[in-house]
Design a protein that fits this description.
This protein is α+β, with helices and mostly antiparallel strands. 32% of the residues lie in helices and 26% in strands. It has two domains: 1-33; 36-143, Beta Barrel (OB fold (Dihydrolipoamide Acetyltransferase, E2P)), CATH 2.40.50.140.
Length: 155
Amino acid sequence: MKPRQKRLAIIGGGLAALGLVATLVLNAFEDNLLFFFSPTQVFAKEAPLDRPFRIGGLVEAGSVKREADGVTVAFKVTDTAQVVPVLYKGILPDLFQEGKGVVARGRLGPDGVFRADQVLARHDENYMPPEAAHALEQAKKSQGSLVAPAGGYSK
């Protein structure tokens, strides 16, 4: 082989290796990517049925129901426009309360119930997850309401 052919072979091999690494990294990233959906988007069937995602909003007042086993909790997440029922089996965060911000990770069942495997709650009275705050603002805009969110949520 001539030196020029050797260089082209090395460059071609390097590009093939780089392409393989990029493919593997992007595939791993795709598998771990969790999209966020508001209850309005879930109601509009924009959320996937075949993969996990996050849903966020406010825990609807009066919706928290605890099962007799002590670890299964059913509650509803709302963005003030739509409501999505959530079923969670596990220990809820100490700051989980009705009327407060929440983000849950899990899958939407064919029955329309979101089965969460993780629930996150706000950490103080001035904070709401940015995705949840944005979803609430979008829901209020779609209702034509000019009322600002209560509690001084930050983005």
